[in-house]
Amino acid sequence: QVQLVESGGGLVQAGGSLRLSCAASGRTFNSRAMGWFRQAPGKDREFVATISWSGDTTDYADSVKGRFTISRDNAKNTGYLQMNSLKPEDTAVYYCAAGIWSSMTRDFRDFSSWGQGTQVTVSS
Questions:
Q1: 81, 99 in Cβ contact below 8 A?
Q2: 3-state SS string over 55-121?
Q3: pLDDT in tens, 48-66
Q4: Which tens digits make up the pLDDT trace of 12-30?
Q5: β-sheet bridge partners, residue 51
Q6: How many other CB atoms are there within 10 angstroms of residue 61's CB atom?
């Protein structure tokens, strides 16, 4: 099993940037896809971005495309989400997840390990 711990959340003004990190423990992280999801109060969990095990393929929700960048450093067992041009509607708890498979996926059911989440708040 993979354990995940997110960090890097906080309060930022609209237009600002944050970089989230996801530190993984467990030998299989490097062979599994990784994803970022978010959940705002009163809303369902929402897909944000995903990356394949090797990092060579990525996919983004339309709402963050061009503003967010997902990446990973398998040597450090860490994944990242660089968030630029933040908007108030990006406010949510952000979760990283390790996939069951090596290929990237948007479906939360294809992720078996989840972090505890980190709060991102964007003020207008």
A1: no
A2: CCCEEECCCCCCCEEEEEEHHHCEEEEEECCCCHHHCEEEEEEEECCCCCCCCHHHEEEECCCEEEE
A3: 999 999 999 999 999 999 9
A4: 999 999 999 999 998 788 8
A5: 34, 58
A6: 16
Choose among 61, 60, 53: nearest CA to 77.
53
Task: Give the pLDDT confidence score for residue 27 in this predicted structure.
Answer: 76
SS3 31: helix
Residue 6's SS3 state is strand
Which residues on adjacent β-strands are paired with residue 4? 24
| Residue 54 token pair | 């090797």
